[in-house]
Protein 1
Amino acid sequence: MGKMIVTEGNYSKKPYYLKNSKLSIHSIEELCYCITKNPELCEDFLYDRDLAAFIDEELGLKERGNLLADCIERDAPLKDLVTVCFCSCDYLVREEIEDFLEELSRSERSEKWIRIRNKADSYLSHENYKNAVINYRSLVKDAGSLGITSENLGDIYHNMGIAFLHTEGFESAAECFRLAYERNNREESLKSYLLSLKFGEKNDDYRTALDVYNISEETTDWLKNAVFHTELEASDEAELYELREAEQLLKNGRVSDFYDIVAKMTEEMKEQYRKYND
Amino acid sequence: MASLVLGMDFYEKEVYVGLWNEEERCTKSFNVPAKSDGEHIPLFVVPTGKETFIAGHEGIAYSIREGCNGVSLLYGKNVKERVEVNGMVFEISELLAGFIGDILSAVRKCYAGAAFSRICITGERMNPDDSRRLSDALLRLGYGKERFFIINHANAFLRYMVSSDEIRRRQRAVTIDTDSFGSEVYFYNPADRGMGFPAYIERLETSPVLNEELYTIADGDKRKEAFEDVVSYVMTQDRNVNCLYVTGHIAEDERIKDVLRRYASASLKIFSGQNLYSSGACYRAVDEKLKDGILSDGEVFHTVSVEAYKDAVIDGIPLIKAGCPLDRAVGRIYLIPDNSDKIVFRIRDQRTGRSEAVNFPLDGLIHRENRTNRLEITVRFPDIKTLVIKVRDLGFGSIYPASYRVSEQTIML
């Protein structure tokens, strides 16, 4: 049966950014929503004293904020913290809370590498690439002792490659995708590997890979098409031209000119940021 | 001229007064201290004309005549119908009328000659004789029987519980009232839906453990121990109690508050404070004012509520109450639909008692995943016969931006 839920506490004008995620909240209901949608990450943002203070001061739920602070202080189990948040409002009904806690227990009982992988995947989806890479690296390092199968390790390498695309660049990403394909044999990993080589301007390696992995004509056409469309989309970005220009200057040893361009771009970005926030 | 609703709680040494605050839809209470702080003294009026101003809890100044104390007569061991004061014989009701008149005129002074539309008096261990004397006194003061009510403490407590949303939602409540007679314990229980009155006093506890006069124990530690005995006794009587209210002088004792803090938990909410009965009496008088449909010009006749889920119960949440001045008749609430495509409002005409449901469809307002639509609901009365309901989509924080779409419905009453 449908119902209308009465909201609890204040609606904060200032958002609160949940730790290690790109999520921000203004109300207790939004916090509950974020917990239910991100069970792997809630450990990160719930053990945060600032969140307890936000609930107390900004949302006006003094008692609940203090309760959460108490739980954090005595390092209570995650389930306790989740319960404190869920029971602060009527967003979820009792059965839903129980189901969520049961799911949380099931997840805690699952194999260690699965927990770490899920967490890393969540970081990845929240664009927290640094933490994602840290977790993927720990899995790769202890793959043997954690009992990760070759195929699963391949998938981990693949996701690590995606994180590297945003942090270390095409070269490291390509290496991850290669290692991924050698383990999971997935076409997706192979295509990602080849695209990374292409975008990283490793044309010799790209050609070698086409031969080594016996790439079909169909896949080659797909790759050409993908590169064409991606560059077409990117060409609309004025910043990309400037970045390429700056990169070229650095390669040619014109460090001072490189810094001038970077400073100009940074100033423009700041200006844009100020406009958005005014 | 303002019309006030007043509740009075008669103790043996003092009187508590509760005034209905229309703006905040609640009562404001304060005590009117008596001169005597010792044994019972008979009522008499010292005709000195000297006036003393005493500031009440809410900062309202009261003027009562020195030496005026009518309460002891009600509870004195040998209550006589007539007493002699300064050589003159007075009827008790006559003296009581003088005493009540003093309080009323003091309140009236603070409110620029306000009139009293309803008065409710409550008292501890109120017996039929006490009620009769008080009735006679009020009649002497010119108040018709339809304008005053005399109820006992249990009834006043019940009114308080029913009118206090926070406590009512706790569902199983108990009150410990400590006074010079010992402790009285009321167990409150919400009644099934559909019954005439939404709650009743389940029982009044009378155990020997409650007989000790707690607040007369001089030694603080001993007083604390005795109180702990009372609380633990009460809690063993009903393990389902989830709300404990402590009232009487002892409620202000810091040691007692320490005891209460220990008992407080997520499953047991504790309130402590004074003036419960005067507030309850005031709520009783307000209810009566509305029930009779005695609404002044410029006050709305309808109570508007919305069916919504709060504290794990679907209930009618009042947005505007009948009797509210028209210029302040605006109600606002924030709701999140959960698989619901309509909002149900209930509009009750306080004059006829008739109630009707109004469905407000949410077409075009809900367009995101379930439970990610925060809606602002505003109801207002542009005039006494028109109700306007406005619903606005506020999004769901940074997760889903607001569309600020608005849907409005006008209802002619």
Note: Chain A touches chain B through 24 residues (CB under 8 Å).
Protein 2
Amino acid sequence: MTARRFFTGLWVAVFWLLWMASGNAATPRERDKIQTWVEENGLQVILIENHVNPMVEVRILARGGAAHDPVGREGLASLTAWMFNEGGGEFDSSAFQERLHYYGISMAADVGSDTIEVHLTSLSEHLDEAFARMGDAMLRPRFAQADFERALRERSAELIKSEEDPSFRASRALMPMIFGNHPYARPTTGTQESIKRIELADIRLHHQSTFRAPGMVMAIAGDVTRDQIEARLKRHLEKLSSEPGPFVPPPKATPAEKGLEKHIEMDQPQTTVRMGVVAMDREDPDFYALTVMNQLLGGGGLTSRLNQVVREERGLAYGIFSGFSPLAGRGPFTISTETKTESAREAVALIRSELKRMMEEEISEAELGDVLRYLTGSFPLHLDGLDKLAETWCRIGFYRRGLDYLDTWPDKIRAVTRADIQRVAKRILNLDRLQTVTVGRSSTNPPKTAADPSPSPADPPR
Amino acid sequence: MRDGSGSHALTSRIHRFGVALALCAFCIPSSASALEARTFTLENGLKGIVARESKAPVVIAQMWYRVGSVDEKPGKAGLSHMLEHMMFQGTESVPPEAFSKIIAREGGEDNASTTTDYTMYYVKLASDRLELALRLEADRMRGLKLSEEEFTSENLVVREERRMRTDADPNQRMLERYRALLFGDHPYGRPVIGSMKEIEGLTLADLTAWYQTYYAPNNATLVVVGDVDPEETEQLVKKHFAHLASQPQIPKPQLPDPPSRQEPARLEVTDKGAKLPIWMAGYTVPSWAMTPDTNDAMALDILATVLGGGGSSRLHTRLIRELALAVSASASYSGHAMSWEPFSLSAMPKAGADLKELEKAMFEEVERLQQEPVPARELEKAQNGLIAERVYAMDAIDHIAWIIGRMSLNGQDWRMMFDDYPARVRAVTSADLQRVARKYLQPARLTVGILKP
């Protein structure tokens, strides 16, 4: 409930990417039989059958994320997602939730930049009940005024509470610096002013525009057969609109001409550092090179260069990460860390010098070997649960990566060369275009120029 | 936890305060087949539990040491957590910081976490590479090399961790004081990570002594879950761990009763970093481990669900829907601690809400549980929810291993959280709920905390 939701969508995408980044390999196991088909109304369905555990995970991605919020009414998509499980059909909000809980069903929607994502988890024995309620939510939402007002109360409080959180404040400042006038610049959860302009009719319209069969992808993983799914889709979701609806993918973002540094004053013992730049979409030929480069620079775990230099060698931070989010309109590449007030300048300088090193020096064969082994070797770790399978396959479907995406992934990763990594580093990590936000006490305010203030020489390649 | 990417660091602190119930949910339904598992103890005292779960070609190895902040003395709080960080700093055969690199090169992931009760290390990787994880884990159980140089920089990292987790967050600053009041002299009242002063004051000698005392096979439980053969795995464990020497005397922590009071303890904190108030309350109640012969802990778990589990719970209905005083309201109880733990209530009032009115409504809901039996449908709803959540949790081998390790460390039969769980949940009656509500949700056990902007 507190903060950190500003970025929800983006980070979901980043995590997905990290999973993907970790590998593929082996063809999915025989028992995880993948079937895909398109319903008559246009709904694309991906089924991963697995009968080990008597449960089913469903994920749905529908175009209608925060990037589709009207200017001035930011937060609309997010509130629409919030309202998703607030009653439908013959059940008002309370009765609806009571029924879901009675059957042990978990169903909610969340918002990302491109999409609204529906999560549904059910025991296989109650799957019909689960699909019936999903049909209510999609086709016959109640959208009662009292529930809408409760949503606004909660959102308003959440926005106030978020002000306590330096990472929320940093991200809110960083996105407009990275994206300028592009829709990805807008705050996902809106502002106090923008949510006041939102009316129930807006929610209804956004919901109707979002939940339409064409363009919507449903992935189902677990203890269920195709016949059972088809019967339930026919019974409960056949009436989804077969018209495509008004939302089209957002335009491609372009990086700002000049990187700026912005400081936000906050009385904190630590300075929160966030840096970022426009990166790429999933179709980009450099997608795989960026995946490898990111893992090497600041990917998860404790083996990255940024971690080595900032944490292990100098003890300046508990965590330091980079990540990217390949959205339809080109998502951001970001770097984040927190360090004590006195070290903020040093940390920013070290990050910049590591970026510079990535651009100026080819990485060693040994480093490339290690990172490729990690990425390809950790593949099974990232598909070892029904939730992960449903999530991953839903994104593959929504972003049209093709059914062979996981099968071809490792070879594409292995094909990345040292020269590719240097090239993609030069293309994306352009220091003149890199945006920087610091949140903390002003003594840490980094220099106002975009010049590289690095006081320490780059480490020699290892 | 030494990796800032995750959210389970210092697990017990986080979830005992009721922010999330994620880890409370593990089990399989009566319809599912029992987990195939093998339990053994080596001659040097190492306990091993291996369970086969072959949904994916993956395995997790969790090494649990029975040492945590509960064993620390005031002035040295944070020692167990600091040592956890140092466990990655090398042995005779593995150079400093190489542990994670070796695992990553094999496509694996590793991390660790420290809580009040235990320190746990895990490696997760492709199941055909399990032996690597076992070899490295055995190597650092008795062979850690502690150096001043590595300690100096890792100590700075832990200070940053404390700043990030606690000092930079008004809610966590408050929780630290609240927990101290709630537990009084009980070691659970001290922060797992330690105060900044304590972290700064830790020495290499402290760490060496701590390591030698607690890091031994007879103080450890190894849990392996995944696509492995339990018998073969037992042989592998023997191969790598059997030669390690046990430690003759491992001290037991002192676990006094929590304070008993004439009237509830109260803490009101004004923090200019806070932008909205938080209201919280906790009754000190026993855990599963403390009540092996009763169903009190199970009843408390169900009671927390009835009271504050989700959007159709009593607190949600009353505080958020009807009175429109709060924007969040919940109740939680984990049950997994070695010693006492809070049965927690918490709420975030909407801006400008009357906190007295909110508190009054909260306690009226508690009283209602004491005075009126919970209707059958509501009880069933809570039971169904708990049973379903345990099925869902079986989807992740990490969770299966966690629950096996957690229960074993407390000397409990972990199977009761798997095979027997649905029957145990169903056995709780409305009368049981009313009984535990009357017995435990008493003012003498209560601490109320309010954070104000």
Note: DSSP finds 16 helices and eleven strands in chain B.
Protein 3
Amino acid sequence: MDFIYTIFPPKVLSQVFVGLSRTTILFIVSSGLSLILGVLRIPNVAHGSLYMIGAFMAFTISKVFGGGDIGFWLALIGAPLGVALVSLIAERGVFQFLYEREHLMLLLLTFAFSLVFGDLVKIVWGAEYKSVPVPQVFQGFVNLFGGLPFPLYNLFLLIVGPIVAVVLWLIVNKTKIGKIARAAAVDREMVGAVGINVSWVFAIVFVIGCLLAGLGGALVAPTVSVTLGMDHTLIIEAFLIVIMGGLGNIWGALLGALIFGLSQSLGILIWSQFGIVFPYAAVIVVLLFRPTGLLKSTW
Amino acid sequence: MKKSLFLSVFLVGVFSLLLFIPLSYAQKTIKVGIVDTYTGPASTFTIDVLDGFKMAVEKINAKGGILGKKIEFFTRDEKFKPDIGLAMAKELVLKEKVDILMGTINSATALAVSDFALKEKIPFFVTFSKSEKIVVDKGHRYVFNMNENAMMAGRAAGYALGKKPYMKYWIAGDDYEYGHSIANNVWENIQKANPKAVLVGQTWWKVGEADFTPYITQILAAKPDFIIVATGGSGMVNFQKAAKATGLSQKIPFYQHTAIELSVLKPQGQNAPEGVYGTANYFFYYPERPENKAFVEEFKKAYNREPRIGALSGYMTAQFIAEGFKKAGKIDKEGLVKALEGMMLDSPVGKLEIRACDHQLVLPMYFGKTKKDSKYDFLVAGDIETISGKDYMPTCEEVRKIRKYK
Amino acid sequence: MLQSMLRGKGLIWGYAGLIILFLLPLILPRFYIYIVSIILLTGLLATSLNLVLGYGGIFQFHHAVFYGVGAYATALMLTRTGLSPWISFIVGPIVSAALGLIMGMICIRLSKLYFAMLQISLGSLVWIIVYRWYSFTGGDDGIHGIPLPEILSSPNGAYYFTLIITLICFLIMYKIVKSPFGSALQGIRDNPVRSEMIGINVKRHQLLALIIAGFFAGVAGFLFVVVDTTVFPDMLFWTLSLEICIMCLLGGWFSFFGPMLGAAIIIVLRTFVSTFTSYWTLVLGILMMFVIFFLPNGVLGYVEEKLHKGLIEPVIKE
């Protein structure tokens, strides 16, 4: 262990792992965004709002079940499903009629949705801060890396991230719906021509993408105060990640999230006053050298 | 293309006509215009200001108003955007013809509106913005600050912390005006009281940062004795949660302005960290004066929750407006400004004065640390030390100096 | 130039509109004059974006940066230097145009959403600098009470100044759109490959368009300083950029005057709906959905379309 520390000081290691756990949330949210962008070609600005709704739903579910551990686990399942339901209504009610429109128009439509969602959240949940307690099992911290504390909940996030990635990979690559969706991303007329109901495939992809936003919200809820406006910073980060990784590429989203999360947490070590600059600088460097993102885009 | 030109001219014309709604003359009421943020994380504070104000106004109106005139108020949600806030202030003054302006939690808006209020000679009561520029650097005849500002909060905390035996300090905070101002003032006052104290490092993160863990691990590695944490808004809760999760709150004591206040502690319930130092101007359980108890009872009855820090500010603003007009003897803006200078009123926390030199409300500051209390299902402030205004506020001399220097 | 824009039978209508705008301060109370000034300068901002967005087909997603930088450059010149204020007014737009050149050179290699995101990243860096450089830009509090020359300090002075500058800018922009350069730009939007083949330097045209758009956004920025005597970092935050895009699309991004109409609709809504309810963004969101659903070319685009088809009685007879 000491040998490792001489190459990577504990401070750096700890920062890397904290950065990785932050990456988990970014990855989950931006993979959903990337999925919708890749298959449906919708730049979904309302994705951030769905993330916020997920966090608020997690608060309500956890509170209804007494704020304990059961509440937390139910919230982790219930909140994404609730968000999925909201998105299904939005998709069937509005989006399905507009798939052929200009991208810019779709972007605007989703922005309109984010305005509406923002006010609806205020009407339903009020303006006060909400806080979801960390479940008993994950309270506290462990001493890793030369005695530096590492929160247990962040460890939990480090486990959840890869699970979500693998499940998503299985859905996209091994299921029928995933295969159709991938085909539709490349050529939607062709898929329609072989007699597949593209409309419902799109609906399912949209709902899965939004479900991921809700899951991200539910996962982040115990670590932050759940407030209105928490969607704002996240959505821009998610877009940058998706672009950096390559539009519509799930692994690209993972890579982008890693670069984004790690450049920030390591940036803090190098120049703590301007830690926030590093992720943006990373995006600029990536796009200057790889103008269409790191991995192959589906566009 | 020609057509579109005429069409737009036509439509602009129609809109202009729509705008042209006759103005009401002969005012029967005293009109107060409130511009504030009622959207986003800031609304946790602003809604209390509004409710405290509303409660006082209803009471005043029930007693027949001021000099026979009732108070009427208009609220506008500026959504934390200074351009919209300024446009709304202009709308209130120029269209609604309000006599008095009130607001706002956003310092940029407050400063812009303050500048406008000076030009229009409208008294402007700042109810939650924490920038000391409002009454210190950029103070003028028509602006009044009804809450503590960052300079005051920082100085009060520095005054109390300077007496503690900590030596190695670390400063961390939200990287904006408020954060820097709090931190600088705390640190200046600590140095005055405890010249041997050293600053071992600083960390600044972006406003609205959600995950503090990477920053905290970095601070922990440096092992300071005490951390001055200058966060505001939702950062308060986020930092406390991260401090608990990383064990920071058990290892190194830290201070946050308003850390001991209800807005921060109530949402966290029993899970808030214990032993966090903080300052605040108001608690519903302290000071235990009959006036405070009556105020809390009344507020609970009206809104079914305990009043928080903003409620006092809103409540007292209404009281000062009412008493100011009464003292002036007529509904006159110049008279109000003059009457308010040096005016002292009783409040839930004791007698409060508006200083004549800078129009700052002199408030006692409470310093304490968080603790559990079996009476409540959330943490409260314990070991409360009261710091009176004269001990921590910048003197009139200092204010004059800063104003001249600028 | 005015003649070319207003020739034909519509001449009278155009002049009538101008006369109304010039006479407004005589009929309208001060507040409405202020709102009209804001509409004019915001309309100018939206139209300058539309030069690249609608006519150029470039995804300029962070247009507010040029607006804010123009405003800040003017405000800093006014507060920090002893130079004549009129020089500050020229400096603002030039700085914006220079920024347009720099950001354009970096972003121009990318297309569509990639361009948009790179621009947002770069713009966010500019925003961070303005937001954090306290000693120079005043940080998050901004700069307030900016001194103006006597003639502009009165509400009507500011209004007439805004009106005249806006009109001049509109004439120039209209001229640009109708020029060979404007046609080439639209050609590039519709078919970049073909444009390249017939010998148009696509990148250079687009870059020039970005500089021009930056310049006029800077003009809008200094007009804001004139009207509101204040600047703050929100002026170059990305949410404002999205709002400007909305104005273009709402009014109609294939019409020259669409963005102006969009700006008017949004500002009027914001000003008057907010007096009734604090949920005015909800109203705006729902309205936007309806427009997108039923009027894909924006409000003005829809009206023009109907005029061409003769489905509704033309307001102006040819």
Note: Chain A has a mean pLDDT of 86.
